[in-house]
């Protein structure tokens, strides 16, 4: 027996947990993807995600056959977080924009990827969910007099997209300041007008 075979025979092997590990592996891959692409951008090798997550490449491709699938999974988490965040009746469009800035600051590579593939059904479904939560906030803010009658859900959705895209193109150290300035512009544009 060779020394390599002998060492394999003597070392404890990790038990194969099969389907029981699938959800855990998927979560680890999404977390790893956020880290890898935040550090290295979209040019980071896909295999680096599997390595960071501590799973095999086969597992990566079973869960996410391409980069868009992985980006959609990251944004699904983001949209779910936004849905939960804006559910309380006191939440406003201003709160939504704050949260979009916070998410965009750490998800810039995914913003680039997902906005390049808007026709993908996985991306379109996330867009529909985001539009639904924006519509809810617009109705809430209009009823409370916080935004003008000239603003509709499409305006807020566009503003959020512009904000996220601008942050994706901004140097990491300047993102918080740029996010705050852009958000202030949108808040001023959304405010009720004297004729409202």
UniProtKB/TrEMBL annotation:
The keyword Transcription regulation applies. Residues 1-24 are annotated as: Disordered. InterPro entries: Homeodomain-like_sf (IPR009057), HTH-type_TetR-like_transc_reg (IPR050109), HTH_TetR (IPR001647), Tet_transcr_reg_TetR-rel_C_sf (IPR036271). Residues 1-16 have a biased composition (Low complexity). The keyword Signal does not apply. PROSITE patterns: HTH_TETR_2 (PS50977). Residues 45-64 bind DNA. Keywords: DNA-binding, Transcription, Transcription regulation. Residues 23-82 form the HTH tetR-type domain. Pfam families: TetR_N (PF00440). This is TetR/AcrR family transcriptional regulator. The lineage of its organism: Bacteria, Bacillati, Actinomycetota, Actinomycetes, Micrococcales.
């Amino acid at each position: 027996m060779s020394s390599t075979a002998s060492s394999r025979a003597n070392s404890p092997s990790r038990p194969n947990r099969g389907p029981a590990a699938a959800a855990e592996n998927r979560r680890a891959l999404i977390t790893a993807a956020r880290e890898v692409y935040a550090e290295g951008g979209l040019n980071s090798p896909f295999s680096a995600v599997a390595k960071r997550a501590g799973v095999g490449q086969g597992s990566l491709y079973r869960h996410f056959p391409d980069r868009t699938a992985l980006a959609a999974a990251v944004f699904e988490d983001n949209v779910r977080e936004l849905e939960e965040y804006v559910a309380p009746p006191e939440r406003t469009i201003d709160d939504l924009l704050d949260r979009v800035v916070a998410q965009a600051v750490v998800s810039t590579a995914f913003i680039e990827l997902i906005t390049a593939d808007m026709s993908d059904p996985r991306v379109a479904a996330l867009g529909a969910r985001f539009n639904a939560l924006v519509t809810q906030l617009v109705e809430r803010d209009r009823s409370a007099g916080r935004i003008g009658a000239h603003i509709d859900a499409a305006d807020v959705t566009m503003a959020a997209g512009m904000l996220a895209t601008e942050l994706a193109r901004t140097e990491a150290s300047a993102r918080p300041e740029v996010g705050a300035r852009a958000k202030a512009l949108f808040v001023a544009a959304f405010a009720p007008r004297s004729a409202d």
